[in-house]
Amino acid sequence: QVQVMESGGGSTQTGGSLTLPCVASIVSETRCSMSWFRGTPGQRTMVASVYSDNSTEYADSVRGRFTVSRDYTKNILTLQMNNLQVDDTDMYYCRVRRARGASCLVSYDWGLGTQVTVSS
User: Fold this and answer.
1) For 87, how many CA atoms within 13 A lie in the half-sphere containing its CB?
2) Which residue of 2, 24, 25, 65 shows the fewest CB atoms closer than 10 Å?
3) At a CB cut-off of 8 Å and minimum separation 6, what does 90 contact?
């Protein structure tokens, strides 16, 4: 099981910026996806992902405002959030896809989340 820890959450005003790093205790050399989600443990939606081929995907609501990047040497996934809006207020979670050998499993590890609050 991979340990996943998010940080960087906090409060800001509309138009502000926050940076959310996610550190994962990955020991496999197989590059499986890492993603940022938002919501509650029972209902989470994808915000941004970096896939095994290093491609990225964003939710429509954040494209152009958020940037996701991954440091493979340190296993850190960073979400740069710019021009934040009140609707971005939520708990943000990091998700790491598990690897077994050279394969990426349909199995994931989650962090406990970090709260982002944007006020007008």
Assistant:
1) 4
2) 25
3) 38, 39, 115, 116
